Amino acid sequence: MIGWEDVYKVVVATTPLYVALILGYGSVKWWRVFTREQGDAVNRFVCYFTLPLFTFEFTANCDPFKWNFMFIGADAISKVIIVVVLAFWAKCSSKGSYRWSITSFSLCTLTNSLVVGVPLMKAMYGQLGVDMVVQSSIVQGIVWLTFLLFVLEFRRTGIDFSSDIGISGSRVQSAVEPGKDLEESSTDVVASTEPSFWYLMRTVWLKLVKNPNSYACILGIAYALIANRCHFKMPSIVEGSILIMSRAGTGTAMFSMGIFMSLQEKLIACGPSLTAVGMVLRFIAGPAAMAIGSIAVGLHGDALRIAIIQAALPQSITSFIFAKEYGLHAESDLRHDGFLSSLGSVLRNLRVHTLIISLIRLFMKEAGRGGN
Question: Does 370 reside within a domain?
């Protein structure tokens, strides 16, 4: 059961996040300290300076040789489960949609591990919790956000090429050669303009190169591998230069989120029905898939609890930035619901954790009885 001590730890860990969030919201909505343009400048400062250095600090200080690979395996299994279910839904259901499958994958699987996860897990499970959410964040930044970017770029490229094909097809129809079949001509145009795999990979690579958080993850894990293999520490002058900016990472990220919330017309921008669906995907489907993956690889104890709770953290900031850039249901993102999503994550992750752990224990107990 959830004790008052657990609730107190959550409150202590998350109250500073809410303070920064409210200050960001009020600075635009109530006190008019920042204009919309100045708010955009704050967001760019967070995106290009404090958040990448914050990410680099945690990544560089981890030890990849002591990672919990069972946890990483469970995380991979949970995401594969979500992908298979969503693909089946998009293919076989009359209400299925590949566009909504992409959005649902983002909601179910991609979490705000560092900004919210680190203080929460540190309060609840100490250094073990911090280490596991940092591992999750690194794998997410290098593997799963790249996968999401590839799918989004594939979708947008397909749309762009469909538009180009439509224009080219109309031109062909008006200028078709005498004696040549029109359908054959249109087929030639489609074949000649169809995007190649390498074109998509090149486009995705260019996007990643421009993303400072990609640099932070890759450079951080590269440094961590070398430093832990060769047993040397970062020079204090370099570490101090990073820390002076990275220490502001959590606060400025939440402040920036508050500014973004204040610029929305409604507190719940996507409406109650989409909010309810998003909550189910974020706080039930994601942790449930993670529980299945964790059972499959044999996680137990605190590692199992941490795996399930971190799957119920708020959605990744980067995934929302991608959704907004590619015009794919950015309005359905739970960060539009600001206070509701952040508060919901803190309350629900403990409830989900308790419920799923109880079900797992019951299942294992019944399996033990059946074996006897």
Answer: no
CA–CA distances in Å: residue 177 to residues 170, 180, 190, 193: 14, 6, 17, 20
165 vs 99, higher pLDDT = 99
Instruction: Tell me how many domains the chain contains.
Output: 1
Q: What is the mean pLDDT of the chain?
A: 78
Domain that holds residue 140: 4-364
Enter the pTM of the model: 0.76
We report the CATH number of the domain holding residue 329 as: 1.20.1530
**Positive/negative CA dihedral, 45, 282, 78, 135:** positive
Backbone angles phi, psi at 315, to 5 degrees: -70, 155
Residue 7's CB is within 10 A of a number of other CB atoms, namely 13
Question: Which residue in the block uniquely carries the two structure tokens 């560089």?
Answer: 60
Alpha helices (H) along the chain? 4-29, 36-45, 51-60, 69-92, 98-109, 118-139, 145-174, 182-193, 197-209, 212-230, 236-246, 249-262, 271-280, 286-297, 301-310, 317-326, 339-371
Separation between Cα atoms, residue 2 and residue 313, nearest integer Å: 18
Kindly report, residue by residue over 13-39, the tens digit of the pLDDT: 778 888 998 999 999 999 999 988 888
**Has residue 166 been placed in a domain?**
yes
Each residue's pLDDT tens digit, 156-187:
776 655 555 555 555 545 555 555 454 455 45
* AA identity, residue 311: A
For tokens 């059946």, the residue is 370
Tell me the DSSP string of 331-347. Answer: GG-GGGGTHHHHHHHHH
